[in-house]
Amino acid sequence: MALTGLLDLQQLSPLEAALAMSLFAAAMTSLGGLAALPLGRRRLDPRVLDAGLGFSSGVMTVASFTSLLLPAIEAAGQPWTPLLGFAAGAATIAVVHRLLPHEHVLLDRYEGPEWGRRKLRAAWLVAVAILIHNLPEGMAIGASSAYSVEKGVATGLAIALQDVPEGLAVAMPVLLASGSRLAALGISVLSGLCEVATAVPTVLLGEAAAAHLPVILGFGAGAMVYVVSHEALPESHRSGHENLATLGYFLGFAVMLILDTTL
């Protein structure tokens, strides 16, 4: 039945595939956020967060290349145009990251020891990083769907799979920072909906301007690689759980590679 469902998805138009897969990914992000709620504020385990970030990083690394950058080079017939998009994607997320308010949003009224402030700052940065990287994830689904519905389905499935620990990863820091389960769930839902908000315009742009598709694919890849390199992977190694984070990375890498080569 699962195989039949996948085959049915591959009969969709690029726009329908991008919308369906981005909504599915958003739902899985929300599911991950729900999983964080029973943990309670005092029983949060940072090992789960680090393993989830490692898994997310592994998936995004493979998706950036096999589902975005390599198809972009194939479509362009040369690497230079996709690499231009790649650089633009990384630069755009770097600017967005620099302009967004970070820890002061939640730390202005913090009272407690300095080590707690540092931990809270790191938790908020993780939440901001997940929100930022869901934008290029949606672009990845949209751009892949515009290139090929099969690629869009494979990318959407892989992203949705890693969105469960990602939803957990974005909800846990908010729960830790605010103590509000409603806020934690709300930010995970919003994080997932960011993917829909970027998937649909990207696939429409890809269909309307096929000549620019290699740049769009490269842009999504550059944005994702920047977040992996600058935020997700380093953050997963800052709490002394490097082995779990590395295991999560390899697991995510293998899952995405299997999905991308078998679908």
Automatic annotation (TrEMBL):
UniProt-listed InterPro entries: ZIP
Segments traversing the membrane: 17-39, 51-73, 79-101, 182-204, 210-228, 240-259
Localization annotation: Membrane
Pfam families, per database record: Zip
Keyword Transmembrane: yes
Domain of life: Archaea
Membrane topology type: Multi-pass membrane protein
Keyword tags: Membrane, Transmembrane, Transmembrane helix
Protein name from the UniProt record: ZIP family metal transporter
Organism: Pyrodictium abyssi
